[in-house]
Amino acid sequence: MTGSVALSKVQRQVSIQACVICSFICLAGGIYVVFEFLPELASPIFIIVDFLCWQWGFCGVITSYMLINKTLRRGVLRFYLRMFGYGRDQEETTAVVSHVVPKSSSAPLA
Questions:
Q1: From CA 5, how far away is CA 15, in angstroms rounded?
Q2: Where in the chain are the domains?
Q3: Which segments cross the bilayer (predicted)?
């Protein structure tokens, strides 16, 4: 079989997301196992790094999805914009009103 195996854009994005998510989880788990077997290496800075990696294992999933996945990012932004009244509904209302009411009229109103 000849030819190159190329990843599509979606496959590449999913692979990057999986690597980012798994790297923090594995790093936190690895540091924790080292602390269990070699507690003398558990200096305060390593404990802080382990704690941050453990936290990033949870919030890193959301952050990596928001940074890498454009569709998810647009959907979340659209949701929050609509929730605060800046969504598409307001744009459609403004467009309808601007076509019904003239912006300026040269003839005086009676």
A1: 15
A2: 8-85
A3: 14-35, 41-68
Structure tokens at 52: 């941050």
Structural contact between residues 84 and 73, judged by C-beta atoms closer than 8 angstroms: no
DSSP alpha helix (H) spans, 38-86: 44-68, 70-83
Burial of 60 (C-beta count, 10 Å sphere; 0-12/13-18/19+): middle
* CB 57, CB 22: distance < 8 Å: no
Residues 38 and 26: their CA atoms lie apart, in Å, by 18
Q: Compute CA distances 21 → 1, 3, 64, 65, 99, whole Å.
A: 34, 31, 7, 10, 49
pLDDT surpassing 70 at residue 93: no
